[in-house]
From TrEMBL:
Metabolic or biological pathway, per its Swiss-Prot or TrEMBL entry: Nitrogen metabolism; urea cycle; L-ornithine and urea from L-arginine: step 1/1
Lineage, top ranks: Eukaryota, Metazoa, Ecdysozoa, Arthropoda, Hexapoda
SUPFAM superfamilies: Arginase/deacetylase
Matches recorded under Gene3D superfamilies: Ureohydrolase domain (3.40.800.10)
Reaction catalysed by this enzyme: L-arginine + H2O = urea + L-ornithine
Cofactor stoichiometry and binding remark: Binds 2 manganese ions per subunit.
Family membership: Belongs to the arginase family.
GO MF terms held by the record: arginase activity; manganese ion binding
Any Pfam family matching the protein: Arginase
Organism: Dendroctonus ponderosae
The protein, known as: Arginase
Keyword terms: Arginine metabolism, Hydrolase, Manganese, Metal-binding, Urea cycle
Entry EC number(s): 3.5.3.1
Binding site for Mn(2+): H122, D146, H148, D150, D254, D256
Length: 351
């Protein structure tokens, strides 16, 4: 036991040491909105970039190596256009887009970068988690930060919107509850619900509650955050899903996990969510593990609310991303590390 603990600590120290040399980050935009019905969420990646995401990240001490891979583009195969799955709206788009997302995320992580995916609606989580799994040989755990569990199947969903189904598609324990999904053979539900934890839940459908209770999923709602505090909740979640501290962490952060006063421009906002301060602290804790492998920030919808609402929401998303990648609220030291000396003009002797 002590030997295993020593190895875990050593590996963590090594990861943290190398992280000081300059973290490599890959940005990926997924302007996709077919997983739900409200127009505008596809503009999320552009809005986040335009408000200065890269410039904010470049201010982080230690200098990040940032590469923007642009936006995902996809084509629907001819045979897939004719396929349909009951109660899964825009199925062909979901399957085709997520396949391309998975390939791109896998490529970014294999290049040694933390993949930061800008959504888009949360249905893209199928592709981002799948790509992470393939890059890391299934050795990952997932923190799903969301007001909703996104744990419906096509049989239990009341809307048919796939942004409420990604976790059910990913979990191997639920694979028998799906029909055959044409065009999705590239995606195998291999991650166990034992390696998944929810934080921020406060809007759970009845069948989702049934699955959480029956399968013992690690689910922390807002009342848990209120009772224990966000640091304790994150520590509890990580201890459950990654007890040996050796897995690559995938954080899928739905902006509606924040209270609607903090992030009003999103399609399924629910009052009583996390403060931005709690969201930032959550991501700071993840950064301190030195094990973040991928981060999704989804459901930012610039077409909802006033200009001020949109700016507040996008700014919140940027704060979350920056915290995950090492921004410190304590302030940043100058990269020179030297306090400039006072200089005085030369004095001339009068003759």
């Amino acid at each position: 036991m002590r030997a295993r603990l020593a190895i875990t600590v050593l590996n963590t120290v090594k990861r943290c040491y190398h992280s000081q040399e300059g973290c490599k980050v890959g940005l990926l935009g997924v302007p996709f909105e077919k997983g739900q019905t409200k127009k505008g969420v596809a503009a999320g990646p552009e809005a986040i970039r335009k408000l200065g995401l890269v410039e904010r990240l470049e201010e982080i001490e230690g200098k990040l190596d940032i590469k923007d891979y642009g936006d995902v583009c996809y084509k629907i195969a001819t045979d897939l256009k004719e396929k349909d799955v009951p109660n899964m709206k825009e199925y062909a788009h979901i399957a085709a887009c997520n396949q391309q997302v998975s390939k791109t995320v896998e490529k970014i992580i294999n290049e040694g970068r933390i993949c930061v995916t800008l959504g888009g609606d949360h249905s893209l989580g199928v592709g981002t988690v799948d790509g992470h799994i393939k890059a890391k040989g299934e050795n990952i755990c997932v923190l799903w930060i969301d007001a909703h569990p996104d744990l419906n199947t096509n049989k239990t969903s009341s809307t048919g919107n796939v942004h409420g189904m990604p976790m059910a598609l990913l979990a191997k324990e639920l694979s028998d509850y799906w029909p055959y999904l044409p065009g999705m053979d590239w995606q195998k539900p291999v991650i166990s619900l034992r390696h998944i934890a929810y934080i921020g839940l406060r809007s759970v459908d009845s069948y989702e509650r049934l699955v959480i209770d029956k399968l013992g999923i690690n689910a922390f709602g807002m009342e848990d955050i209120e009772n224990y505090g966000i640091r304790t909740i994150v520590d509890m979640a990580l201890n459950k899903i990654d007890p040996e501290s050796n897995k690559s962490i995938h954080v899928s952060f739905d902006i509606d996990s924040l209270d609607s006063l903090e992030a009003p421009s999103t399609g399924t906002s629910v009052r009583g969510g996390m403060t931005l301060r709690e969201g930032i602290q959550l991501m700071e804790i993840i950064h301190q593990t030195c094990r973040l492998g991928a981060l999704d920030v989804v459901e930012v919808n610039p077409s909802i609310g006033s200009e001020a609402d949109v700016k507040r929401t996008v700014d919140a998303a940027i704060h979350v991303i920056a915290a995950a990648l090492g921004h410190s609220r304590r302030g940043l030291s100058p990269r020179s590390g030297v306090l400039p000396l006072q200089t005085f003009p030369p004095k001339y002797q009068e003759i």
